[in-house]
Amino acid sequence: ESTAFACRNTLCDRLIPGLYVIPSANSCLTWYGVMFIRSGPYSGGVFRLTMEIPEDFPNSLPPKVFMDPGLYHPAVHPSTHELNVHDVFPRWSRTANRLWQVLEYTHSIFQQISIKFPLNKDAAELYETNKDEFNKKASECADKCAADTLSSVYHDISDAHFIRFSPFEESVHSSALAALLTSTRNTSMKEQAAAAPQRGDGRPLGLSWVQMGSIKPCSRPETSLGPQPRPVKHKPPSSSS
Where is there biased composition of kind Basic residues (predicted)? Predict the structure, then answer.
């Protein structure tokens, strides 16, 4: 599990667009993810994934990835919903392969559709013979999966780290939305990126509207987009026996 957790930290440096993942609260060998697709036939879709990492990882077979039950795609089995990972990673090398590569491949299947190793032969045949009809089904699939993210079924899952969505509520979300829109209008993304903290290789760490040491959205002042001092951590008082 320690290796899987270290791989999770590495993933934070990859910046895969529209992808959000978090390990299960119960095991670092199960990861939950959500992908927001912004282009291609599945544009507008919101797709869930679950990645199962073998117990003997990284001396093991590749991890398994299971997609949304409603996903219609040549690379996803229509019954088990498993993504074809093994034909892309036939052997798992602990020195050459990383979990972020599996997630990057998972994200890529929505723009770069391949029918070389199909698990859904009907979808592969339709893509090859009638792309217009395939694109129509892919668009319908994207709409359905996006709508299903609000399903009450997902709220019944007990794992504390499972990613859940709720409908927009004016009283809860309007202030956060207004703050984000105001910040975007007043400061260009280029200016924000230039002011953002930098990694060791010079790439930006990314932008945040959360004040350091706080969990409240949009608590960070617009004039303070650059690096902030880390809060001082005080040792708890020792208890007397």
Answer: 231-241
Tens digit of pLDDT for each residue in 182-210?
865 555 555 655 655 555 556 555 555 55
In a domain, 212, yes or no: yes
Q: How far is CA 176 from CA 105, 163, 209, in A?
A: 33, 19, 10
Rounded CA separation 45/38 (Å): 8
Do 128 and 44 lie in one domain? The reply is: yes
Cis peptide leading into residue 58 (ω within 30°): yes
**Cα–Cα dist 6/210, whole Å:** 25
Amino acid identity at 111: Q
Q: How many domains does the chain have?
A: 2
Instruction: Tell me the per-residue pLDDT of 82-137, one tens digit each, with 9 for 90 and over.
Output: 999 998 998 888 888 889 999 999 999 999 999 999 999 999 999 999 999 999 99
Alpha-carbon distance of 222 to 208, in angstroms, equals 10
- Host domain of residue 195: 169-224
As a whole number of angstroms, the distance between CA 191 and CA 172 comes to 29
Residue 83 CA to residue 34 CA, distance in Å, equals: 15
Strand runs labelled E in the chain: 19-23, 30-36, 46-52, 64-67
